[in-house]
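G., the chain you wanted modeled:
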Amino acid sequence: MIANLLLEIINLLGHLVRTASGLVKEVRPLIREFKEYLRARRESGMPLTDPSAEHPLVQEHLASIAAVARTLTETGVLEQLAKHLPDMTLRLHRGLHREEPKLFMADVLRHLGISERTYYRKVAQGKLRPRKWEGPDFFYLSDLEEERRESVRRGRV
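Predicted structure as tokens:
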């Protein structure tokens, strides 16, 4: 249940990042165009404001949109989210329950034909990535395919 909720949150964040990134890309040219428009009005001596734009509600919304857009672009939040979203999604998907049986450390040692010390070394090197959802670390058989091939190649199993 929690995993499904987290997955939904990650999916919504992904949608938000894609939407906001697209919005920022669309807004930048409009801002440039608007600045050029204001510059042209100033140079021609025309008033810079349109009476309808002075309505308090319009000003309030424009100010809040500008503040959010400025914050998102200046802080680099969108770029950071876009950069880390694939990794966050992968980690979440790795933690979801599968129909495969769980293999714990003793099972992994037998399956790969390695010692406990080698197990910890491979975990430290990142060659084995245990799942740490609830309780002790575990693996699924599919997590161990590459290391199993290496064990067979080396004649351990």
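The beta strands are 102-103, 139-140.

Shout if anything looks off.
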